[in-house]
Specification:
Elements lengths: L20 H18 L13 E6 L5 H12 L3 E6 L11 H10 L4 E6 L4 H8 L4 E7 L5 H14 L7 E5 L6 H12 L3 E5 L9 H4 L2 E3 L2 H5 L4 E4 L15 H8 L3 H4 L7 E3 L12 H4 L6 H20 L8
Parallel strand pairs: 1-2, 1-3, 3-4, 5-6, 5-8, 6-7, 8-9
Helix pairs in contact: 1-5, 1-12, 2-12, 3-4, 5-6, 5-12
The structure holds phosphoric acid mono(formamide)ester.
Phosphoric acid mono(formamide)ester binds next to helix 2.
């Protein structure tokens, strides 16, 4: 990697709304370099030596938590992980008190996943001299997922301008959908959202370029189809009758995929509910880039830590 100065202008990564097209481009360029580091035999550079990263996951996670941990370790940071059940929040400690406790330990960066929309914003206001990364807050946003999705699309498509991206599923409860709609529209993609009426936000028409309740309409001529998990943990009974009917009406099958562009790519942020939102042969088929998304998750999160913490690279790293 080169010795260019890190001139990234943001302290925190809280929302895709805060990023310009250039910022997104800077994340992608840096992530590409970080991917090269991850492909070396020795996957470690000393860039963040002496820096402390706390991963505070107050909701379950496999991909995001692990990739932030791997990212921090590959950059030589000291990485500490906290979960809701293993922290004093399980004994009733408030977010404010926990943030104060973390502040006293003087970390350089905190990633936070929370069931509460806005929690990372609150923490960023409570802790000075520390970067905060939103690793998914309630139904609100998941910006690092959007950046890795954008990176994955960029590896398969020539340009974002005019690219037809359809996001299908539980849009209402999906922070991945919200961040991707913002990010992809900034880059010029044409974003259609699709789901049962009860799982579409009231302002769906304002959010996306197209809104439909028909998966066939959504998939037709799409360049990218992004399937979403039904967020059972956030859905009320009244809005969602049963998974079998959902699968019949909104599941992505290879038959339905024939309507898409010939070189369509199929994405899913995970975890996947096979046979519900996506048929197993589609999830594992030649169109699927689901594991590329996971791989790029490490590179993008290395880029996030690197850019937010202003790590300068020594020549030859
Ligand atoms: N995509 C995503 O956020 O996955 P995890 O919940 O496993 O982190």
């Amino acid at each position: 990697m080169g010795s260019e100065a890190n001139v990234f202008s943001h302290r925190h990564l809280l929302s895709m709304d805060d990023l310009s097209r250039d910022d997104i481009g800077q994340f992608l360029t840096t992530a590409k370099m970080m991917k090269e580091v991850s492909e070396r035999e020795v996957k470690k550079i000393p860039t963040l030596r002496g820096r402390t990263v706390i991963n505070c996951f107050l909701e379950p996670s496999t991909r995001t938590r692990m990739s932030f941990e791997i990212a921090g370790k590959r950059l030589s940071a000291d990485v500490i992980n906290i979960s809701a059940s293993g922290s004093s929040m399980s004994k009733g400690e408030s977010l404010k008190d926990m943030a104060g406790t973390l502040r006293a330990m003087n970390p350089d960066l905190i990633t936070i996943r929370s069931p509460h929309s806005g929690a990372p914003f609150q923490v960023s206001e409570m802790i000075e001299r520390c970067s905060v990364v939103n690793a998914g807050d309630g139904r609100h946003e998941h910006p690092s997922q959007s950046l890795l999705d954008i990176m994955t699309i960029s590896e398969h498509k020539e340009a974002f301008m005019g690219l037809k991206v359809s996001i299908v599923g539980d849009i209402l409860n999906s922070r991945v959908a919200r961040s991707n709609i913002i990010g992809l529209k900034k880059l010029g993609a044409v974003v259609t959202i699709c789901g049962p009426k009860t799982l579409l936000p009231v302002n769906a028409e304002e959010m996306a370029d197209g809104v439909t309740t028909s998966i066939k309409t959504a998939v037709k001529n799409a360049d990218v189809v992004m399937m979403l998990r039904i967020q059972k943990e956030r859905i009320g009974q009244a809005t969602f009758p049963n998974l079998r009917e959902y699968s019949r009406l909104f599941g992505l099958t290879s038959e339905r995929l024939k309507l898409a562009a010939k070189d369509v790519v199929v994405m899913h942020p995970g975890p996947v509910n096979r046979g519900v939102e996506i048929a197993p042969d589609v999830a594992d088929g030649p169109w699927s880039v689901i594991l590329d998304q996971v791989k790029n998750g490490v590179a993008v999160r290395m880029a996030i830590l690197y850019l937010l913490l202003g790590g300068g690279l020594a020549q030859g790293e």
